[in-house]
Amino acid sequence: MTLLTLFSPLMLLVASAIWLFHPGQIIFSQRRGGLHGRPFTIYKFRTMWVSEDGADVQQAVSNDPRITPLGRWLRAWSLDELPQLFNVLRGDMRLVGPRPHALAHEATFKQQCPCYALRDVVKPGITGWAQLHGMRQEITCRADLAQRIQLDLAYVRARSFAWDLSILLKTPLAMIQPMGGAPHPQRRRRAPVMG
């Protein structure tokens, strides 16, 4: 509740900007995989001209024409994730943990990499070890998926209060470098994961 109080002025400002510049719904919701694979509804600020297309979820990519100008800026600085503080309050998520993915994407990722399911032993988080290592953009190839899973599983195996605190303290520094910057050095462009 303290974090919600702290960030409420910023959340109100973002909500007002969305309402002013891109009229329509302010909050975007989507079903994602949570603890032990149980689905939950995640909340984000809307960053696209239209809502996601139901069960046939199309992953947002760089220069995606569906993303609004304001939405592109919100995504670059991860401000669209702020409503997930309500998910933390509800108990669906933690502040720190592996990032949750859309259910349709999870099914594909589990086919591509069976060890993906090992991430589900902890609640998903708003930020995580993988995000501190540059894995904040879309998953576009097998190398992206493997690298993200490797980092997530390293966190799952050795998680602790001290490590969570360290990740939380470093997250603002990671947000200062927007996602439009250089990709993580270990990311490679190979065969697409999706489709």
From TrEMBL:
<feature type="domain" description="Bacterial sugar transferase">
    <location>
        <begin position="2"/>
        <end position="176"/>
    </location>
</feature>
<dbReference type="Pfam" id="PF02397">
    <property type="entry name" value="Bac_transf"/>
</dbReference>
<comment type="similarity">
    <text>Belongs to the bacterial sugar transferase family.</text>
</comment>
<dbReference type="GO" id="GO:0016780">
    <property type="term" value="F:phosphotransferase activity, for other substituted phosphate groups"/>
</dbReference>
<protein>
    <submittedName>
        <fullName>Putative sugar transferase</fullName>
    </submittedName>
</protein>
<dbReference type="InterPro" id="IPR003362">
    <property type="entry name" value="Bact_transf"/>
</dbReference>
<dbReference type="GO" id="GO:0000271">
    <property type="term" value="P:polysaccharide biosynthetic process"/>
</dbReference>
<keyword id="KW-0808">Transferase</keyword>
